[in-house]
Amino acid sequence: xxxxxxxxxxxxxxxxxxxxxxxxxxxxxxxxxxxxxxxxxxxxxxxxxxxxxxxxxxxxxxxxxxxxxxxxxxxxxxxxxxxxxxxxxxxxxxxxxxxxxxxxxxxxxxxxxxxxxxxxxxxxxxxxxxxxxxxxxxxxxxxxxxxxxxxxxxxxxxxxxxxxxxxxxxxxxxxxxxxxxxxxxxxxxxxxxxxxxxxxxxxxxxxxxxxxxxxxxxxxxxxxxxxxxxxxxxxxxxxxxxxxxxxxxxxxxxxxxxxxxxxxxxxxxxxxxxxxxxxxxxxxxxxxxxxxxx
Length: 294
Fold this sequence. Notes:
Oligomer: single chain
Shape: flat
Helix content: 10-25%
Mean pLDDT: 86
């Protein structure tokens, strides 16, 4: 009798023990399960991260502003000099360097020197151009370019008016296709100040004709060519060139010359040719237009 009671008690203890063990296992499994965040929680975290990034960007911007201010302090005492070259580095919180380049020269005209200050940080390239205004410098161009896309900058006559202009060349970091860009700042007739910036994709400049020809963004053999003409500080569209296609999208062998883009619904003033005009065959990216990419 006592043996039976003992066995029943032992069985009950084992049963309770198993239950507790399973309960513990279930709790552990519940803890291991990923917690699904609500939209509100995700949005709150996203906004918090964005605020932190913006805060850091603001701090960096203020630091870079001071670097520019200090560079002007270096250049201003030399305002009457025709030439000046200085380079130095500024260290930010023992994290990274900003390279500073200060130069004065007759970059654009023979009689009006300009000051160019470049700040090269790990993230961006900053270029500021100043003209002389009495005993101080006046900012006439300010350009910021992502370090990953920046290629170079040049000084040359772009619009054929006999004055040298400022050109920043860069290449797009994202996208599938040909994407070389040029940002243009035209020197004005006072030979001191500049126009607003103009941006062109894959351009070929012809100052003698006062024109810009270039290949638009798109896949090889499926894009179009543009032709613009300078009109003072504006740009007029002369025409677009693209392949004629049938209803199924297949090329017919004809070339379309039009005032409107290829995807425009307005197809008036269209001219069909058997071949591409020679003036376009020497532009940069022409092989991309034809689709005969090496």
